[in-house]
C-alpha cells in the first residue's frame, strides 16, 4: 500500500502550468507510516490528498497505489482502500447507525457499536433520545462539531481501509473534544498508511515524513528534526509559528507580570 506520486500536475482551470495547483509533484508515501503535507494556504496540500481520492484526475503524471495507477483501479475498489476524515464532516439526513454504516453498509449492529466505542462516540450516542436510531442531519437532531467528527471517525473505523487521509480533525475544537478525537485517531491509524493535511506544525512533529509544499511544488521532505536542521522553508514556518505563540503568550500576560 505504498502511495507514489509521479510527476503529478493538476490545474482547476485546466489552463497553463503557471496556474497549476500542483506542478511536477513526485514523492513516495511508504505504507504503515505517517506522512504529513504542510504548507501555506494554497500550497497544494489539500489538492494532493483529494487527487489521491480521485475527487479529480491528474492531468499529467500518475498516482499509484501498490504500483498500480489509481485511474486503473475500479472506483469501488479504490474507495475500499482509502478512508478520509475531513474537517468539514459529511453527515447524511439519516439515523446515527446509518451514518456510521456509510463506511461499510453490510456491517452488523454490533460492529457499528464497536466502531463507535473505538471512536469515543458510544456514550453521547447512547444519551440521544433514540440512541443509534436517532435521526441526525438537516432534518434531525443537531450534533456539535466534535460529535460529528467522532461519527466520521467511527465510519472510518468500520471501513478499516489500509490508507487513511486525515484533514486535521481537531483544529477548530475545544480542548475536551480535541483530546477525545485524538484518542480516537490514535486507535484508527494503527498499522495504517496515514496521510495528514497539517495546518499546525506542532501536530506532526512525530511524522515519519513531512512533505513541504509551496505554490504547487514539493520543496522539502524529511523528518521534523531533519527539516529544522536544513533551515529551509519548513524551518522558516516553524520559527514563525513558535514566535507567534510566544507573542500571544506575551500579549496575554498581565501587565503587572511583565
Protein model, in words:
- With 258 residues, this protein is an alpha/beta fold.
- The chain is built from nine helices and twelve strands.
- It has helices at 45-52, 75-81, 96-100, 109-118, 122-127, 145-159, 175-188, 224-230, 233-252; strands at residues 3-10, 22-29, 34-38, 60-65, 68-69, 82-85, 94-95, 135-136, 163-167, 193-197, 209-214, 217-222.
- The strands form three sheets. The chain has a six-stranded mixed β-sheet, with helices on both faces.
- A hairpin with a 2-residue loop joins β11 and β12 (217-222).
- The termini are far apart.
Summarize this, please?
The chain has nine helices and twelve strands.
Mean pLDDT rating: 87
Q: Portion of residues in helices?
A: 25-40%
Taking strands numbered 1, 2, ... along the chain, how are they ordered across the largest sheet?
6-9-10-3-11-12
Instruction: Tell how many strands the DSSP assignment holds.
Output: 12
H-E order: EEEHEEHEEHHHEHEHEEEHH
Classify the beta-strand content into a percent band: 15-25%
Q: Between the first and last Cα atoms, what is the distance in angstroms?
A: 53 Å
Alpha carbon gyration radius:
20 Å
Instruction: Profile the largest sheet.
Output: 6 strands, mixed
Number of helices: 9
The quaternary organization reads as single chain
Structural class: alpha/beta
What would the principal axes of the Cα set say about the shape?
A: globular
Contiguous uncertain segments of 5+ residues? 246-258
Amino acid at each position: 500500500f505504498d502511495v507514489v506520486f509521479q510527476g503529478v500536475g493538476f490545474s482547476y482551470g485546466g489552463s497553463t502550468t503557471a496556474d497549476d495547483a500542483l506542478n511536477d509533484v513526485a514523492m513516495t508515501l511508504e505504507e504503515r507510516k505517517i506522512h504529513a503535507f504542510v504548507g501555506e494556504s494554497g500550497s497544494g496540500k489539500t489538492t494532493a490528498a483529494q487527487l489521491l481520492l480521485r475527487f479529480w484526475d491528474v492531468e499529467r503524471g500518475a498516482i499509484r497505489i501498490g504500483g498500480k495507477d489509481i485511474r486503473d483501479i475500479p472506483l469501488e475498489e479504490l474507495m475500499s482502500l482509502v478512508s478520509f476524515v475531513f474537517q468539514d464532516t459529511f453527515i447524511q439526513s439519516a439515523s446515527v447507525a446509518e451514518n456510521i454504516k456509510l463506511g461499510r453498509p453490510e456491517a452488523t449492529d454490533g460492529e457499528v457499536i464497536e466502531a463507535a466505542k473505538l471512536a469515543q462516540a458510544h456514550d453521547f450516542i447512547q444519551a440521544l433520545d433514540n440512541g443509534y436510531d436517532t435521526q441526525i442531519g438537516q432534518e434531525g437532531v443537531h450534533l456539535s462539531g466534535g460529535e460529528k467528527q467522532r461519527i466520521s471517525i467511527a465510519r472510518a473505523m468500520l471501513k478499516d481501509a489500509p490508507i487513511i487521509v486525515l484533514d486535521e480533525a481537531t483544529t477548530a475544537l475545544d480542548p475536551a473534544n480535541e483530546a477525545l478525537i485524538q484518542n480516537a485517531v490514535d486507535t484508527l491509524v494503527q498499522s495504517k498508511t496515514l496521510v495528514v493535511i497539517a495546518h499546525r506544525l506542532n501536530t506532526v512533529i512525530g511524522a515519519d515524513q513531512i512533505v513541504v509544499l509551496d505554490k504547487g511544488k514539493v520543496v522539502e521532505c524529511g523528518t521534523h528534526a531533519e527539516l529544522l536542521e536544513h533551515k529551509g522553508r519548513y524551518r522558516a514556518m516553524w520559527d514563525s509559528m513558535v514566535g507567534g505563540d510566544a507573542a500571544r503568550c506575551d500579549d496575554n500576560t498581565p501587565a503587572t507580570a511583565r
